[in-house]
Amino acid sequence: MLPDATSDNISTQGLGEAELSLHLAAIVQSSEDAIVSKTLEGIVTSWNPGAERLFGYTADEMIGQPIIKILPPERVSEEPVILERIRRGERVEHFYTIRQTKQGRLVDISLTVSPIKDANGRIIGASKIARDVTDVVVARRKLEESEERFRMAMEATQLGTWDFHPLTGELNWSEECRRIYALPPGQKVDFKIFSEHIYPDDRHYAETEIQKSMDPSGDGHYDISFRIIRFNDKAVRWIRSQGKVHFNSKRQPELFTGTVVDITQQKQSQQALEESEQRIRLAVEAARMGTFDWDLLSNDFKSSQRLNDIFGYHGQPNITHQHLIDAFHPDDKPARDKAVAEAPEKGSLRYEARIYWPDRSIHWIKVFGKIIYNEKGQALRMYGTVMDSTEEKITLNSLEENEHRLNIVIQAAGLGTWELNLLTRELIYSDRYLQILGFLPGSHPTHEEILSKIHPDDMPVRNEAIKEALENGTLDFEMRIKPSPESTRWIRSRGKVFYDKKNAPWRILGTTMDITEQKTAFNALQASELLFKTIANVSPVGLWMTDVNGKNTFVNATWIEWTGIGVTDHSDEGWLGAILDPDREYVLGVCKKSLESRENFAVEFRIRRKDGQIRWMLSEGGPYYTIEKEFSGLAGSVADITERKQQEIQKNDFLAVASHELKTPITSIKAYTQLLAKTYERTDNEFLKNALGKIEIQVNKMTKLVIDFLKLSKIESGKLQLNCEIFDINKLVREEASDMQMVSVNHKIVIMEDQPVNISADKERIAQVINNFLNNAVKYSPDDKQIVIKIEQSAGMVTVSVTDNGIGIKPDEHDKIFERFYRAKANTNTSFSGFGIGLYICAEIIRRHGGKIGVRSEEGKGATFYFTLPVID
Ligand code: ADP
Predict the structure, then answer these.
(1) Residues near 606 by Cβ (< 8 Å), separated by ≥ 6?
(2) 353 backbone dihedrals φ, ψ, rounded to 5°
(3) Which of 121, 389, 424, 555 has its CA 20 to 30 A from that of 716?
(4) 706 lines ligand 1 (CB under 6 A)
(5) Whose CA is nearest to atom 8 of ligand 1?
(6) pLDDT at residue 11, as a whole number
């Protein structure tokens, strides 16, 4: 049976049946394709050599065998479908399928199956032509794969493609293109829509560029970036559009093809990059950095204007590399050359050097460079910056200087310095610190060894101090150490805590000082104070001290025992509370005077003891000073003089009584003497006359003495009363002077008076003071004849002074002569009689009038006694 001859490939027209049969057989035999026939049941009836080649089975192996032998199991179901179509008289054409060879290999085939009819047109079988299409399938698959890859690449690059036909106006966008424009599905595009979606600002530019590409004389290409407005969200995006115009034979644009890619992100990052570059540039400018770009292969060196400025070439553009190299200070040039030479290997350049400006001033620069290599590792270029570090250097130098100065101070003070890292517990210390602790300078004791030097009893002190320092930032404590087992020394450590960026304590910088000597001195002081206090407190006298302002700072136990007033109870004048009212003001005055004049004083007063007893006290005191001779206040003692005072009072009382008792007989003697003198006025008995004269003089002396004694006793017992009246002091002086002149015929008393001056005073007492001055003047100037009384007025005060040219008084006795019973040393052994109470009484009288009394004199040069009283207007 021959196969049906109706195959597409075979033309049978014009051939006789036998010819045809032969012809067909030849074709079948020689065909590259497998040509097979089968019954409607699928049994193979013919098998040509092509089928043998393709499927590996010989005709013998296949004829009479079911065709499904060459079907892979998963394709067996194809066969009934094909046979069914054949039965219906249909052809199956170019059906791509897979068959299995005898060797089990799968082959891609293209199958064409046609029905075989008998002479009656009945379908009796099928012929099939199978063509090995493996290569085609492989090629197609490859193409598909390649297309897939292209699509993926497109997707990856997000490259949209389009074509535009200017003659028809048709515009086609690829999926990606539509995605870039966010074009809704189904939406058609044309040139108008495309144009409308160009960002208005860019539209003119884009269209002009596209237009230009259509110029037949050009190459028809364009490549532009512009902004579009997306369809759905109206977002503005940057795209890059590349296009090519295809011209027809008439050089008319016939077709545009092109690509579109969304470059928004790229544009944004480019902008960000530009911004960051701008920022770097600004930073460079702000840092006043010069920059350079050095091509290491061509040795081409480009420097920025700022770099030239740094080298002192202000505004000069044509500065060569050599100019700059020549500027280096000879001392720094070798280091610079070395750094440059090593840079290609190191990858970077870094040095600091001095340069000379054209004006020969010296400046410091700091240079940083970075080497750029090619892929072979060859150094191509060096980029770098140059900074003027002159000021920084000056600052650093002054910092160094400061540190140097600090070091000198530290050394001079014998301060050990240290630094404790609180995180690592690492301790860095100076040699002096080691020395203080008893280590050799330069040694490296461990932390434990250092800690072992601390006196065991003081370890808690140290730990507590560090704990506190961590809380409040400063360390300051004293402790004992044992530099060697047999010695103990005191140290004081002070420090400051430094914090890290997170504000956590990071390290302590500190100093340590050996304070043993101070401490010993301090201890000695404490011991001495203790001794003083002990002595003071067991002393039978009261002891007291004040500060510079006179505020009481110390009283001893004795005083407290007497008065019940301790120093802590003392308000400003607390201690005065113990003094009896009449004496208080006077005592305070004396103390104040001493505080101001810084002179010693002695004052007697009465106190009321806490047991109620009234006691007489003598307080003697004076200024005390520090070792540096600085005034520190007053210090003194208070002694109970009640017994002595009582004796004195008894003596006074006796004096008062005796004087009083003497007064009457003396007055009587005086009266009789004067009577006798009168009676014997004219007698020739010289002896009598003389004797009477002498008696009168002696009686006068005695009278004065008795009056003085009486006054004294009155003063002493506080009974001196003042009977003040207003009178002219000139008049009183004149009266007293003329009285004195009468009895002192050998002296000439001169009065130098002013206009009348009224004062309010006890006339009798003031007369007594003048009389006393005059008496003394006469008494202590036996060889000199003139006595001058002066009455002067100024600033509401009147001063009466009596000047003689007698023996005078040593300055150191000036104060003392106003004390009771004091007589100047010069006259104690001479014939000048007296008790040393006249000036004492005068001083008391003047004091009670609120006036001042005093003397100006030198030994052998006479004396001027004066008193001053307030004037009544
Ligand atoms: P008296 O004269 O009785 O000793 P006074 O109290 O009057 O006592 O004087 C005290 C002392 O002052 C005298 O002892 C004398 O040393 C000294 N004195 C007083 N007046 C003069 C004077 N005009 N010149 C020198 N010394 C004087």
Answers:
(1) 579, 580, 583, 614, 615, 616, 617
(2) -155, 165
(3) 555
(4) no
(5) 836
(6) 41
The amino acid sitting at 788 is V
Test site for ligand 1: of 817, 831, 842, 866, most ligand atoms within 8 A of the Cβ? 817
Q: How far apart (Å, rounded) are the C-alpha atoms in residues 246 and 664? A: 167
pLDDT tens digits for range 166-208: 888 888 888 888 888 988 888 888 888 888 899 999 999 998 9
Distances (CA, A) of 85 to 90, 96, 131, 524: 5, 16, 20, 134
* Spacing, Cα 772 to ligand 1 middle (Å): 9
Bridge partners, 625 (sequence order) = 631
For residue range 531-557, what is the model confidence (pLDDT) as tens digits? 777 777 777 888 888 888 888 888 888
Angle between helices 642-679 and 686-716 (to 10 degrees): 150
- CA pair distance 823, 562, nearest whole angstrom: 35
- 839 touches ligand 1 (CB under 6 Å): yes
CB atoms < 10 A from the CB of 584, how many?
17
From the list 355, 410, 424, 411, the residue with the least C-alpha distance to 388 is 355
Q: Which of 493, 490, 492, 494 is nearest to 520 (CA)?
A: 490
Q: How close is the Cα of 823 to the center of ligand 1, in Å?
A: 6
Residues written for the chain:
873
CB of residue 809 inside a 6 A radius of ligand 1: yes
Distance 777 CA to ligand 1 centre (A): 8
827 C-beta closer than 6 A to ligand 1: yes
Which helix (H) or strand (E) element contains residue 355? strand 348-356
**Nearest alpha-carbon partner for 859 in 818, 821, 806:** 806
